[in-house]
């Protein structure tokens, strides 16, 4: 379950104490329900480098920790707004404000001690904004971030590339030091051009939404072959961009794409205390999903999530990372072996077709 809590300014209300108390209350509700886990999203805007320390201080000082929760950091694509306000002079300022503190704390954890603690709970980096806004199509002649000093917002794929490039380097550094890594998991394909999905196919670990894959059979097929995760939120899409009955989720699921159900802004979209149950129950009713279908979707959700290997092993089996039925613990997932064997067999046949019979199948799923 994804939940956006960044709509309040954590510097307000006695340095965010009120929001921290609300967040702890939600933590306690999750812990009481026992079987619900959440990935909460908070924003880093890139206006100044101190944002990371401010956020980490709020997390650590208010003891916002729960075994049921990990954190995603979302980056709003608002360069044009900050440029008009005079906060930044180039797009490179945004990148420096976002990534320099992360490199500093990785090289020397004592330089940002609270941030070092907080990053142990951070599992992903997200890109957010209204994808339907008109944008200039990217070309090879576009200026570098340091040269991007005009008032126009860079294209989606421009943001994606430079965030991916910096995050890739950062993760290699963190891996070399035995630290946790941060995966790239942007919003993509909720609206706008299909170029967005092409960019995230090349860079993202998994994406949120992806409903525009219905408009591009080629990209849809590539996402299937690569088994890139799609965390889809039909109720959110229904409120903003696409009627529920036109949502491609059931079609993607039948075709074997790596789909899961998630919430998006549950305080705005959902009506009950159990927003994720809403997503599952309505999907099951409208699309006639069986209990086997729901269990497979839930298993996909665990695999896509940013929770640790130990947690995933506990939830869906110690060998969940193996392909096909070898990675299925039916006692935990309630997914029949024959379902995963079918998925794996069809996927392997497709890969052999694409690779002219010379496909190399890794033993383990990334």
From TrEMBL:
Co-factor(s): Zn(2+)
Keywords: Hydrolase, Metal-binding, Zinc
Domain of life the protein comes from: Eukaryota
GO MF, any single term: AMP deaminase activity
Enzyme class name: hydrolase
EC annotation from Swiss-Prot or TrEMBL: 3.5.4.6
SUPFAM superfamilies: Metallo-dependent hydrolases
An annotated GO BP: AMP metabolic process
Record InterPro entries: A/AMP_deam_AS, AMPD, Metal_Hydrolase
One Gene Ontology term, aspect cellular component: cytosol
Keyword Methyltransferase: no
Binding site for substrate: 190, 265-268
Name of a matching Pfam family: AMP_deaminase
Residue sites binding Zn(2+) per the record: 187, 264
Active site annotation, chain numbering: 209
Gene3D superfamilies: Metal-dependent hydrolases
Cofactor note: Binds 1 zinc ion per subunit.
Pathway involvement of the protein, from the record: Purine metabolism; IMP biosynthesis via salvage pathway; IMP from AMP: step 1/1
Family: Belongs to the metallo-dependent hydrolases superfamily. Adenosine and AMP deaminases family.
Name of the protein described by the UniProt record: AMP deaminase
Organism: Nyssa sinensis
Higher taxonomy: Eukaryota, Viridiplantae, Streptophyta, Embryophyta, Tracheophyta
